[in-house]
Amino acid sequence: MAALPERAHAGQQPTGSFEVVLPGQLPAAETLLAQADSENFTVASRVLPRHIRRRLLAVYGYARLVDYAGDEACGPREGLLDLLEHDLRRVYTGTPRIPLFQALVPVVRECGIPRELLARLIAANRQDQRVRRYRTFAELVDYCVHSANPVGELVLHIFGYARSDLIALSDRICTALQILEHCQDVVEDAQRDRVYLPTEDLEHFSCTEQELTTPSTSAELRNLIWFEVDRARQLLDEGTPLVSRLSGIARLAVAGYVAGGRATVRAFAAAGHDPVSVTVRPNKTRALGEWARLCLTGARSDSTTTRVLSAYRQCEEITRAEAKNFSYGISLLPGPKRRALSAVYAFARRVDDIGDGELPYTDKVTKLAHVRDELRSANLGSADPVLVALADASHRMSIPLEVFDELVEGCEADVRGQRYATFDELLHYCRCVAGSIGRLSLAVFGAENSPTARARADALGVALQLTNILRDVLEDRRNGRVYLPRQDMEHFGVGLELTEDGMLADDPTALGELIRFEAGRAEQWYAEGFRLLPMLDHRSRACCAAMAGIYHELLQRIIAEPHTAMRTRMSLPARQKVAVATRSLAGMTP
């Protein structure tokens, strides 16, 4: 720490004078300039002429010092910002005292940079001292007018392109880069009691500020980050024509900034839009490729295609994280079908999570009604990645999205705590929550859409759901849910009462007989459902066989060890799931 003038003394107070600064409050110039290597983009590429690099680094050093004063400095930051503003005025008389400001003197003279432009960065950091939340996106964009956009305009001044039409394009690029940085730094900012994600967006995606500092990331927060990153991508695309409007070294430099932004967008996708448990940083090789392409062509990406593919990747990430059994089968599909089925699963998971969550009854009912409305309005412009992916998949593969209404109906039964007197009543529930997914999957597989095919897909879904029910008897009972038909329970003398330590109090023999009886019913549904496989193409057959095969082997374990199943939640080891998937791909179907 060595950036203070010799006249700095502790304990003196005249505002606007260097005497108010305590020793050690400002870092050395080289310390701040070294941070250029950690930015999303190359600040001053070595391919640029030396005098241009000098100017760019001078502006970067100034901006970094101002940010340090507003974000990291110890003590009263307002006073420190006053000091910087005072020394900025001295830049225009050629008499600044701070070394980084001294480096600005020739730059403002050579490039005609107005003081108001540099002062806006100080104003942004003053705002940071007062404003720690932004209600709307419009408010956040207005903040970027001071915190980010001046940097782009400064760059245009350095290259002699500071025209109003080009500045407007630069503003979009800078706002995009600022939003991406906010998304990268959500944890760090939250720890400083600053949240740059708009409050209205947090509310829309049912996220809380507490989620920004927890070790794991919810699907809701990942969807919110996807939404904000997608906003930044759109702004970046809107500003990219600036590259084509420039020439020579200006084009090289600005293309590098845009390329860094695009590489950061891709880094978010690779991280599953999870900046909480993953450090999101752009890949330098990818950024270099984007930079070369922009320099040569100035081309924009296909915004719609990019957005849709990003939405699909988000659905695939949800599937990998939340559907350990299904993901083995889904991974066997070719790209378009894999993405579409991931979108179907991601939406189904959302519905299930509402029913299984901890919200009060009325809130769950309201959210389920909202889910129905969302589904009906899903389109490529939706704010939610799952809805974007579903809209595209439905258009491409004629997926009957209205079938999801049955899933919601089944989830509403869960919310009500409904129990089932007979197997026929349970069968209706299974067809709602699982048979519906079978029929939706049939559309993705592209199989013959006949009553026979739909019935077999429905049967396979029922079989999987019955397996789930048998696997989760104890867990469901502890949560106050009973799915086994009352008629069957009475026949076998089982009540599913719990002991004080939360275990099933029924006679193990009677309970085992009931479980094997229900498992026998599930076997019949598997037998009918497996008749769907010959109606599918090879990859779809492998996917379906793998997903159903994993559950079928789990059912076999439950039949072999019903007493174990009633004491703990049974599952298959990963190696066994991989073996099932491998056999399925090889055509060795159940």
TrEMBL record:
<dbReference type="GO" id="GO:0004311">
    <property type="term" value="F:geranylgeranyl diphosphate synthase activity"/>
</dbReference>
<dbReference type="InterPro" id="IPR017828">
    <property type="entry name" value="SQ_synth_HpnD-like"/>
</dbReference>
<comment type="pathway">
    <text>Carotenoid biosynthesis; phytoene biosynthesis.</text>
</comment>
<keyword id="KW-0808">Transferase</keyword>
<dbReference type="InterPro" id="IPR008949">
    <property type="entry name" value="Isoprenoid_synthase_dom_sf"/>
</dbReference>
<dbReference type="GO" id="GO:0051996">
    <property type="term" value="F:squalene synthase [NAD(P)H] activity"/>
</dbReference>
<dbReference type="GO" id="GO:0016117">
    <property type="term" value="P:carotenoid biosynthetic process"/>
</dbReference>
<dbReference type="InterPro" id="IPR044843">
    <property type="entry name" value="Trans_IPPS_bact-type"/>
</dbReference>
<protein>
    <submittedName>
        <fullName>Phytoene synthase</fullName>
        <ecNumber>2.5.1.32</ecNumber>
    </submittedName>
</protein>
<dbReference type="InterPro" id="IPR019845">
    <property type="entry name" value="Squalene/phytoene_synthase_CS"/>
</dbReference>
<dbReference type="InterPro" id="IPR033904">
    <property type="entry name" value="Trans_IPPS_HH"/>
</dbReference>
<dbReference type="Pfam" id="PF00494">
    <property type="entry name" value="SQS_PSY"/>
</dbReference>
<dbReference type="InterPro" id="IPR002060">
    <property type="entry name" value="Squ/phyt_synthse"/>
</dbReference>
<dbReference type="InterPro" id="IPR017827">
    <property type="entry name" value="HSQ_synthase_HpnC"/>
</dbReference>
